[in-house]
Amino acid sequence: MAGDCIFCKIIAGEIPGRRAYEDDELVVVHDINPQAPLHVLVLPRKHIEKLTDLTSEDDALIGRMQRVAAQVVEEAGAGDFRTVFNCGEGAGQSVFHIHLHVLAGRGLGWPPG
Ligand code: AMP
Ligand code: ZN
Q1: What is the pLDDT of residue 2?
Q2: Residue 15 CA: which ligand is closest?
Q3: In the predicted model, what is the mean pLDDT of the chain?
Q4: Catalytic residue numbers?
Q5: DSSP state at residue 51
Q6: Any idea which ligand is nearest the CA of 43?
Q7: Which of 10, 12, 43, 77 has the greatest number of beta carbons closer than 10 A?
Q8: Which residues contact 113 (CB under 8 A, 6 or more apart)?
Q9: HSE (CB half, 13 Å, CA atoms) of 34?
Protein backbone atom coordinates (compact mmCIF):
# COMPACT_ATOMS: atom_id res chain seq x y z
CA MET A 1 0.00 0.00 0.00
CA ALA A 2 1.26 3.46 -0.90
CA GLY A 3 0.75 5.82 2.04
CA ASP A 4 -1.23 8.65 0.51
CA CYS A 5 -2.91 6.75 -2.34
CA ILE A 6 -6.69 7.20 -2.33
CA PHE A 7 -7.30 3.92 -4.15
CA CYS A 8 -5.09 1.97 -1.73
CA LYS A 9 -7.21 3.49 1.07
CA ILE A 10 -10.46 2.43 -0.65
CA ILE A 11 -9.07 -1.09 -1.15
CA ALA A 12 -8.06 -1.24 2.54
CA GLY A 13 -11.51 0.00 3.59
CA GLU A 14 -10.03 3.12 5.19
CA ILE A 15 -12.24 5.37 3.09
CA PRO A 16 -15.63 4.34 1.75
CA GLY A 17 -16.27 3.12 -1.74
CA ARG A 18 -19.36 1.41 -3.19
CA ARG A 19 -18.09 -2.01 -4.24
CA ALA A 20 -19.47 -3.84 -7.24
CA TYR A 21 -17.08 -6.81 -7.04
CA GLU A 22 -13.95 -7.99 -5.25
CA ASP A 23 -11.60 -10.93 -5.27
CA ASP A 24 -8.09 -11.71 -4.09
CA GLU A 25 -6.48 -9.44 -6.70
CA LEU A 26 -9.11 -6.85 -7.66
CA VAL A 27 -11.66 -4.46 -6.19
CA VAL A 28 -14.31 -2.83 -8.40
CA VAL A 29 -15.86 0.40 -7.09
CA HIS A 30 -18.42 2.81 -8.47
CA ASP A 31 -16.81 6.05 -9.63
CA ILE A 32 -17.62 8.97 -7.33
CA ASN A 33 -18.21 11.23 -10.36
CA PRO A 34 -19.90 8.92 -12.87
CA GLN A 35 -19.67 9.78 -16.56
CA ALA A 36 -22.27 7.19 -17.62
CA PRO A 37 -25.20 5.37 -15.98
CA LEU A 38 -22.72 2.61 -15.12
CA HIS A 39 -19.21 3.86 -14.38
CA VAL A 40 -17.03 1.60 -12.29
CA LEU A 41 -13.29 1.42 -11.73
CA VAL A 42 -11.43 -1.88 -11.69
CA LEU A 43 -8.61 -1.51 -9.16
CA PRO A 44 -5.78 -4.00 -8.66
CA ARG A 45 -5.02 -4.48 -4.97
CA LYS A 46 -1.36 -4.11 -5.96
CA HIS A 47 -0.26 -0.46 -6.09
CA ILE A 48 1.08 0.28 -9.57
CA GLU A 49 1.34 3.98 -10.43
CA LYS A 50 1.09 3.93 -14.21
CA LEU A 51 0.76 1.53 -17.10
CA THR A 52 4.37 2.34 -17.92
CA ASP A 53 5.37 0.71 -14.60
CA LEU A 54 3.93 -2.69 -15.57
CA THR A 55 6.22 -5.68 -15.84
CA SER A 56 5.64 -9.04 -17.47
CA GLU A 57 4.55 -10.29 -14.04
CA ASP A 58 1.45 -8.12 -14.40
CA ASP A 59 0.29 -9.51 -17.75
CA ALA A 60 -2.26 -11.89 -16.21
CA LEU A 61 -3.47 -9.17 -13.85
CA ILE A 62 -4.32 -6.82 -16.73
CA GLY A 63 -6.14 -9.59 -18.55
CA ARG A 64 -8.12 -10.36 -15.42
CA MET A 65 -9.07 -6.69 -15.07
CA GLN A 66 -10.59 -6.71 -18.56
CA ARG A 67 -12.41 -9.99 -17.99
CA VAL A 68 -13.87 -8.81 -14.66
CA ALA A 69 -14.94 -5.53 -16.31
CA ALA A 70 -16.97 -7.50 -18.87
CA GLN A 71 -18.43 -9.67 -16.12
CA VAL A 72 -19.56 -6.68 -14.00
CA VAL A 73 -21.25 -5.05 -17.02
CA GLU A 74 -22.93 -8.30 -17.98
CA GLU A 75 -24.22 -8.87 -14.44
CA ALA A 76 -25.60 -5.31 -14.40
CA GLY A 77 -27.32 -5.93 -17.75
CA ALA A 78 -25.78 -2.67 -18.95
CA GLY A 79 -25.24 -3.67 -22.58
CA ASP A 80 -22.38 -2.35 -24.70
CA PHE A 81 -19.49 -0.78 -22.85
CA ARG A 82 -16.06 0.81 -23.05
CA THR A 83 -12.97 0.18 -20.94
CA VAL A 84 -10.30 2.87 -20.67
CA PHE A 85 -6.94 3.24 -18.97
CA ASN A 86 -5.72 6.84 -18.78
CA CYS A 87 -1.92 6.96 -18.59
CA GLY A 88 -0.32 10.26 -17.56
CA GLU A 89 -1.78 13.67 -16.73
CA GLY A 90 -2.04 14.67 -20.39
CA ALA A 91 -4.34 11.71 -20.96
CA GLY A 92 -6.50 12.53 -17.94
CA GLN A 93 -4.91 10.37 -15.25
CA SER A 94 -5.53 12.04 -11.89
CA VAL A 95 -5.07 9.10 -9.50
CA PHE A 96 -1.70 7.40 -9.77
CA HIS A 97 -2.77 3.83 -8.99
CA ILE A 98 -3.76 2.15 -12.23
CA HIS A 99 -7.48 1.69 -12.75
CA LEU A 100 -9.63 0.52 -15.60
CA HIS A 101 -12.64 2.77 -16.24
CA VAL A 102 -15.73 0.84 -17.31
CA LEU A 103 -18.49 2.92 -18.89
CA ALA A 104 -21.89 1.66 -20.00
CA GLY A 105 -25.55 2.54 -20.19
CA ARG A 106 -25.44 5.29 -22.84
CA GLY A 107 -24.16 5.80 -26.36
CA LEU A 108 -20.41 6.29 -26.35
CA GLY A 109 -18.99 8.54 -29.06
CA TRP A 110 -15.72 7.93 -30.87
CA PRO A 111 -13.09 9.28 -30.69
CA PRO A 112 -13.20 10.08 -26.97
CA GLY A 113 -12.17 13.60 -25.92
P1 AMP B 1 -8.38 9.20 -13.79
O2 AMP B 1 -8.72 10.65 -13.99
O3 AMP B 1 -8.36 8.35 -15.00
O4 AMP B 1 -7.15 9.05 -12.92
O5 AMP B 1 -9.62 8.62 -12.95
C6 AMP B 1 -9.77 8.79 -11.58
C7 AMP B 1 -11.20 8.52 -11.29
O8 AMP B 1 -11.34 8.28 -9.90
C9 AMP B 1 -12.13 9.70 -11.62
O10 AMP B 1 -13.12 9.28 -12.54
C11 AMP B 1 -12.71 10.08 -10.26
O12 AMP B 1 -14.06 10.50 -10.35
C13 AMP B 1 -12.55 8.82 -9.47
N14 AMP B 1 -12.46 8.98 -8.05
C15 AMP B 1 -11.69 9.86 -7.37
N16 AMP B 1 -11.85 9.70 -6.05
C17 AMP B 1 -12.73 8.68 -5.88
C18 AMP B 1 -13.32 8.04 -4.75
N19 AMP B 1 -13.02 8.41 -3.50
N20 AMP B 1 -14.20 7.04 -4.96
C21 AMP B 1 -14.51 6.65 -6.22
N22 AMP B 1 -13.99 7.21 -7.33
C23 AMP B 1 -13.12 8.22 -7.16
ZN1 ZN C 1 -2.43 2.77 -4.49
Answers
A1: 76
A2: 1
A3: 97
A4: 99
A5: G
A6: 2
A7: 43
A8: none
A9: 13
For the chain, list the domains and their CATH numbers.
6-104 (3.30.428.10)
Whole-number pLDDT of residue 48? 98
83 lines ligand 1 (CB under 6 A): no
Q: Which atom of ligand 1 lies nearest, measured to the CA of 96?
A: 4
Give the distance (Å) from ligand 2 centre to CA of residue 89.
16
Q: What is the mean pLDDT of residues 28-48?
A: 98
Pocket of ligand 1 contains residue 95 by CB under 6 Å: yes
Q: How far is CA 109 from the centre of its chain?
A: 20
- Whether the per-residue pLDDT at 1 is higher than 80: the answer is no
CA–centroid distance, residue 95 to ligand 1 (Å) = 7
Confidence band (pLDDT; 50, 70, 90) for 76?
A: very high
Helical segments of 36-112, H only: 59-76
Q: Residue 38 in contact with residue 103, Cβ under 8 Å?
A: yes
Answer whether 0.70 is exceeded by the pTM: yes
